[in-house]
Design brief:
The structure holds 2 protein chains of 2 kinds.
Chain A (H helix, E strand, L loop, with lengths): L1 H27 L16 H11 L5 H10 L5 E2 L9 E2 L21 H36 L4 H14 L3 H18 L19 H35 L2 H8 L4 H28 L4 H6 L5 H10 L3 H29 L7
Antiparallel strand pairs in A: 1-2
Helix pairs in contact in A: 1-12, 4-5, 4-7, 4-12, 5-7, 6-7, 7-9, 8-9, 9-12, 11-12
Chain B lengths: L1 H6 L2 H7 L5 H11 L1 H19 L6 H4 L26 H37 L1 H16 L2 H12 L6 E3 L2 E3 L1 H12 L3 H14 L3 H8 L4 H9 L4 H24 L27 H28 L1 H7 L1
Antiparallel strand pairs in B: 1-2
The chains are: A mainly alpha, B mainly alpha.
Chain lengths: ~350, ~325
């Protein structure tokens, strides 16, 4: 098992390198980070060249990538453009834990910007994912057990419609109903923007009521998808012989369901979950934008539109790393759920 | 068919029952799926809305800005209201619908071509080619589609000039969005096609074709591919719906198709800022997106049932 884990981690290194090269190349071609650097003030051409030299943006793309990867503290930079490099580089490179500094908020380390947003995103995504899984499991198992009952039919139809809904439509419609119209009708209404009311402060109850609408908007589509999946998995498992055996030996329906059916139906679900979990770190661009949630999704989008390579690369590499780790954990859990699978 | 059954005695009717062709059988089974028929009618209405609707208004009218009537609620002259710069939302949903549907169709074509080519080559040739292509497919699967769409959309934005098509001028960003959506959504189809090719290439008719010296290309496209059309048709249909939603997401975030060219997606861009004062900004284009996607998904579901070979055997 230990050797297996080590081998998988070693295999991940070239994969991460390739991903980073591809994304770096894509980002380089996608715009001029200096264009928005001066804020409202336009950057003068000579100042612009100086900045490009300091930031290393005048170098060819492969040099920029090498600096990003291993840093530039082993070379000297020619800041005043007199042909003699005199200033020592300060970047350490991502391999030594230096994500670089943001080009947008100049001087601020990219990793600080990311870590500031990460908790906000987790506050949004983890409760959402738990809510999605719980609801989908309950719905999926129930409709599989009562196949073709009217509830099953209603749930199947409902999940079909939910699956076809774009998140922004649910977000806008629920905002319009529960925030705008409830207020108009004098009912208790939900807040729509931000994580908390600045007048009250960031208290637990404030964050919770600000979570309701974003989580609801994200959940409808995911619950629809997951409950369809759970239902079909459960139906497949419950037609197996060992389930009939379990019933035949007189086990209660609850025991058959939980111990025999669910554990076996869970195996493919674990795979799906292992793919989903790392992306929770990335947040939800659309939901965060609509509800003004200061999370990773918006951070990614804002800095992408301003070509802030260090921050965007940092976010994507963090997610890619999480993907590798989660896949490894998934495979280990897989072997634990299904003892027929051996890793040597 | 039923008339014969009624007029003649059962046994003879069984013998004389005309053999249904495959497409008749599929159509018969498709009609039985009520929601699929509803979806079909709904989709035809959507297509009529954005094509016939165009004969009542012009595209230049849909792009006319008049800030003196900006954000006016629906009234007689502008039945769907006006947007933030005073453009008529009704006209924009008509012309935007053309683009959204077109993007859906063409992006699906890109997706199907990519998925079939990669799946077929990987499944038919096997070996190193197969493992290379499948690693690539897996890698693409693991990249979340929306960020990839955003990065690629930004990379290629403004790099393509506007071009005329079907009597309309399209902004270059339409092409970018089509390419990007198509190139990031073929993986599922490639896997299905590969799996089918793996099992079909071992069948006798392929061996026979090989024996008489049929070339590989001809075996792939002439012999195996026609036998795996059902999943391709189904996933192509669902692909149209996904492409329309993807376009809406990207344009909603403001990096997709650029205004003044309207799409249902970019009409929603920024609408959340007017959630209280101008709900008509998102209600009309949003509802059109939902109805279109829903109808296409229903059709896809109906086709899945209708084309399923196991179900066909049961019907006979």
């Amino acid at each position: 098992m230990f050797r297996y884990v080590v081998r998988r981690l070693l295999q991940a290194i070239p994969l991460l390198l390739i991903i980073s090269i591809v994304i770096f190349a894509l980002l380089q071609g996608s715009g001029d980070p200096l264009a928005t650097l001066g804020g409202r003030r336009t950057v003068r051409p000579e100042e612009r060249e100086r900045l490009a030299r300091i930031l290393g943006l005048d170098k060819p793309i492969y040099i920029q990538y090498v600096y990003w990867l291993v840093g530039n503290d082993w070379v000297k930079i020619d800041v005043d453009n007199d042909g003699i490099p005199e200033t020592a580089g300060t970047r350490k490179g991502i391999l030594r834990g230096d994500f670089g500094t943001s080009l947008v908020t100049r001087g601020e380390p990219a990793i600080d910007i990311i870590l500031e947003r990460l908790p906000n995103t987790l506050i949004l995504m983890i409760p959402a994912e738990i809510f999605i899984l719980m609801t989908a499991l309950a719905i999926g198992i129930y409709s599989a057990m009562r196949q073709y009952s009217w509830i099953d039919q209603a749930v199947t139809a409902g999940s079909f419609i939910g699956y076809s809904m774009p998140i922004f439509f649910i977000a806008l419609a629920s905002m319009y109903l529960f925030a705008v119209n409830f207020r108009k009708w004098g009912l208790p209404y939900l807040p729509t923007v931000g994580m908390f009311d600045p007048k009250v402060g960031k208290t637990f109850s404030q964050v919770v009521i600000h979570l309701v609408l974003p989580i609801f908007s994200m959940s409808v589509v995911s619950i629809s998808g997951w409950s369809r999946y759970v239902r079909s998995q459960m139906l497949e498992v419950t037609s197996q012989d060992y389930i009939r055996t379990a019933y035949a030996k007189g086990l209660s329906e609850r025991k058959v369901l939980v111990r025999h059916a669910l554990k076996n139906a869970a195996i493919p679900m674990v795979t799906l979950l292992g793919i989903e979990i790392p992306f929770l770190l990335g947040g939800a661009v659309v939901t965060e934008t609509i509800f003004g949630w200061p999370g990773m999704g918006r951070l990614f989008f804002d800095h992408l539109t301003r070509s802030d390579t260090p921050v965007v690369m940092g976010i994507l590499m963090l997610i890619s790393f999480a993907v590798v780790i989660c896949q490894l954990i998934t495979d280990i859990v897989y072997g634990w759920l299904d003892p027929r699978i051996r890793y040597d | 068919m039923e008339e014969i059954n009624n007029n003649d005695s059962g046994a003879i009717a069984q013998i004389e029952k005309p053999q249904l062709s495959y497409s008749q059988l599929v159509w018969m089974r498709f009609k039985r799926h009520k929601m699929a028929v509803v979806g079909m009618v709904l989709l035809i209405l959507m297509i009529l809305y954005s094509t016939l609707g165009a004969s009542f208004t012009t595209e230049s009218y849909s792009n006319v800005t008049d800030t003196s009537i900006r954000l006016s609620p629906p009234y007689l002259a502008h039945p769907f209201g006006t947007d933030t710069v005073g453009r008529d939302i009704l006209a924009r949903t008509i012309y935007g619908g053309q683009i959204s549907l077109l993007i859906g169709l063409i992006a699906m074509a890109v997706e199907v071509i990519m998925g079939v080519l990669i799946g077929a080559i990987a499944g038919y040739y096997g070996g190193i080619l197969d493992s290379l292509l499948m690693r690539f497919t897996e890698a693409m699967f693991n990249v979340p589609q929306l960020p990839l769409l955003l990065v690629l959309g930004k990379l290629l934005a403004d790099k393509i000039d506007p071009f005329p098509l079907l009597g309309r001028e399209f902004s270059g960003s339409v092409i970018v969005i089509i390419a990007v959506i198509g190139l990031t959504s073929w993986m599922g189809l490639a896997r299905i096609v590969r799996a089918n090719f793996l099992s079909l290439k071992e069948r006798e008719f392929v061996t026979a074709a090989n024996c008489i010296g049929t070339r590989n290309g001809s075996i792939i496209f002439g012999h195996i591919l026609p036998n795996t059309m059902a999943p391709i048709i189904v996933s192509g249909t669902l692909g149209v719906a996904n492409a329309i939603i993807s376009e809406a997401y990207v344009s909603f975030l403001g990096v997709g198709v650029m205004p003044p060219t309207a799409t249902w997606g970019n009409m929603l861009n920024g609408a959340y800022q007017y959630i209280e004062s101008a709900p008509w900004l998102w209600i009309f284009p949003g509802t059109l997106i939902v109805l279109t996607v829903l109808s296409i998904n229903f059709i896809g579901d109906g086709l899945r049932d209708a084309l399923d070979p196991h179900a066909l055997i049961k019907a006979e």
